[in-house]
Design brief:
The chain is of the alpha/beta class. The chain has one domain. 36% of the residues lie in helices and 14% in strands. The strands form two sheets. It has a four-stranded parallel sheet with strand order 1-2-3-4, with helices on both faces. Strands 5-6 form a two-stranded antiparallel sheet. A hairpin with a 2-residue loop joins strand 5 and strand 6. The radius of gyration is 18 Å and the shape is globular. The termini are far apart.
Length: 176
């Protein structure tokens, strides 16, 4: 029941006690924000009300840096209609966080092939998050004690068929 934080001169701080109370009551393992909720995430970080694992879907313009020692995953598509950021700026944001604690999940367009793309990056609704159990895997990644990137890569093995794993074993291929 939070209002839209993107109205001019919106008092985000006025609503932080409500969010903090919900966090204290629920005691989540991670906090997830999407779209306009990123303004609230920024305020939680800046006020020190949340320093745990955070998953951000659609980087909000108020997120200009990642607090130290936080595990953060940021999800962004190249075709977002509302929050458009260059990939290199998103990568710089990830680098502002502590090493091996942050991950950028970015879906970009492929190169042009004829008149179109063979693969299109996500729009604002981040459709790829519901495919292949991607959202739960990103949540697992941000909750992992090791690097979110390493955890996400480990999860790929679970997506491979048993037939493929047997063929790789026969070829003496090892992913470890």
């Amino acid at each position: 029941n939070l209002p839209n934080p993107e109205t001019p001169m919106f008092p985000v701080a006025q609503f932080l006690p409500n969010i903090k109370q919900a966090i204290d009551e629920f005691q989540p393992h991670c906090v997830i924000s999407a779209s306009k909720g990123g303004a609230y995430m920024t305020a939680l970080w800046q006020c020190g009300l949340w320093a745990g694992p955070s998953l951000v879907i659609n980087r909000h313009p108020t997120i200009v840096g990642i607090p130290p020692n936080m595990r953060v995953v940021i999800c962004q598509g190249s075709n977002d209609e509302y929050y458009q950021f260059r990939r290199e700026d998103l990568e710089a944001l990830i680098r502002s966080g502590s090493p091996n604690r942050c991950l950028l999940y970015y879906t970009g367009n492929s190169g042009l092939l004829g008149r179109g793309y063979t693969r299109e990056g996500d729009r604002h609704n981040m459709q790829s998050l519901i495919q292949y159990d991607c959202l739960p895997r990103l949540i697992d990644a941000v909750l992992s004690d090791e690097s979110p990137e390493v955890q996400l890569m480990r999860s790929w093995r679970d997506m491979v068929t048993e037939e493929r794993l047997k063929a790789e074993e026969w070829l003496r291929y090892s992913s470890s």
